[in-house]
Design goal:
- The structure is a single chain.
- The protein contains nine helices and 17 strands.
- It is an alpha/beta fold.
- It folds into two domains: about 110 residues, 3-Layer(aba) Sandwich (Rossmann fold), CATH 3.40.50.720; about 190 residues, Dihydrodipicolinate Reductase, domain 2, CATH 3.30.360.10.
- The mean pLDDT is about 95.
């Protein structure tokens, strides 16, 4: 049986999601939706998709669509998501998962009631270097994890461009911020690696009070753009998290974790991808002089991490997010099909709720200037 996919959003949805879905066996993208009939019909023709929609609720309730792929603003997506889940659709949802904590709880209730498969488009854990890093931590490469640092810093509006399709990030009602967006993407692999967060303290602020465009136009953003948090996991691990979209000369991705027996570091110059994210590490047993400068060693990644049988693209695909995205989509399809031994869909909506719980704790911490226990976020 072929699963039929409808994509809401033709920009990033058409550029990255469409080729990723087309690389997954057992799937056909049959519909695309934009906000206007003219643009929807043009997108369907350009992308080679059979059906055009200009009402997302209609796509989300259409009986001939099995999987709904939702992009665009979190506040727009919330009612569409609820419609899709109410109609029994499986959902591949963008990150941030919801516009805020109340929306996240509403999505969770609808998802658990309906029993659909829900996956978030937060695919960093499928980037080969990060995937191997998570596995090595679980396998005990660094011993008992103690702490580390995670960064996801990019420059989006330091030199603002009107060609950038996400200038709505300035809107306070959209449900976005540097910490909500980049911070969420970082939290998904951290939770996969280290389990639940017990408590945290956070600082979330705006460092770019104006976005200045090439023609001199200026925008005063309503959103925060730079966040820092200290996360204390239930296991006792303490991680520093820095995430935002306003770092001058950004440093991209860093996940540096150490334990009683070693250290592992994944790095990428910007948002991590299969093409540019590297992994280094060293075990204490392999360093004769513990006081000498540390020279981390490259860690080879098995070829099976760069290509997977049945996926029509590999890590060299020219649109960098497509390969890890396709891996996430394939796990989703296998879960829907109930294949024996297949990996569960991930990151699923259960983890999405915990990421949103962390985000709400960060908001409360910022407001109260104090540590917040995750168990108090209800």
């Amino acid at each position: 049986m072929t699963l039929r996919v409808g994509i809401v959003g033709a920009a990033w949805g058409g550029m990255a999601h469409l080729p990723a879905w087309r690389a997954v066996p057992g799937v056909e993208v049959t519909a695309v939706c934009t906000s206007r009939e003219e643009s929807a019909r043009a997108a369907a023709e350009k992308l080679g998709v059979e059906r055009a929609f200009w009402d997302a609720h209609a796509l989300c309730s259409d009986p001939d669509i099995d999987i709904v792929d939702l992009g665009t603003r979190p506040n727009f997506r919330l009612p569409w998501l609820e419609t899709a889940l109410r109609c029994g659709k499986h959902v591949y949802n963008a990150s941030p998962h919801a516009p805020g904590w109340e929306g996240a709880k509403a999505i969770d209730a609808a998802w658990r009631t309906g029993g659909s498969v829900g996956v978030v488009d937060a695919f960093i854990e499928y980037v080969p270097a990060v995937r191997r890093q998570i596995e090595l931590v679980r396998e005990g490469y660094i011993g008992r994890p103690i702490g580390g640092t995670c960064h996801l810093n990019i420059s989006l509006f330091n030199r603002a461009s009107k060609q950038f399709p996400y200038n709505w990030f300035a809107r306070g009602d959209a449900g976005v911020s540097g910490l909500r967006n980049n911070g969420s993407h970082a939290l998904y692999p951290l939770l996969a690696m280290l389990g639940p967060v017990g408590e945290l303290v956070a600082d979330d602020r705006q460092v770019l009070p104006e976005w200045i465009y090439e023609d001199g136009d200026r925008v005063t953003p309503e959103t925060t753009d730079t966040g820092n948090a200290l996360l204390r996991f239930e296991s006792g691990v303490v991680m520093q998290l820095q995430a935002g979209w306003a770092m001058t000369m950004h440093d991209g991705w860093l996940l540096d974790i150490y334990g009683t027996e070693g250290r592992l570091v994944s790095r990428a110059p910007t948002f991590p991808s299969a093409q540019d994210c590297t992994l280094e590490g060293l075990r204490a047993a392999d360093k004769p002089n513990p006081h000498a400068p540390t020279q981390l060693q490259p860690i080879d990644l098995p070829e099976t991490y760069r290509a997977e049988q049945g996926i029509a693209i590999d890590a060299s695909f020219p649109i960098p997010p497509c390969f890890p995205m396709a891996l996430s989509m394939r796990r989703m399809v296998e879960t829907i099909e109930g294949k024996a031994g297949s990996a569960l869909a991930a990151p699923d909506f259960a983890r999405a709720l915990e990421v949103e719980r962390c985000q709400e704790a960060m908001r409360l911490s910022q407001a109260g200037r104090r540590w917040i226990a995750l168990s108090d976020v209800v």
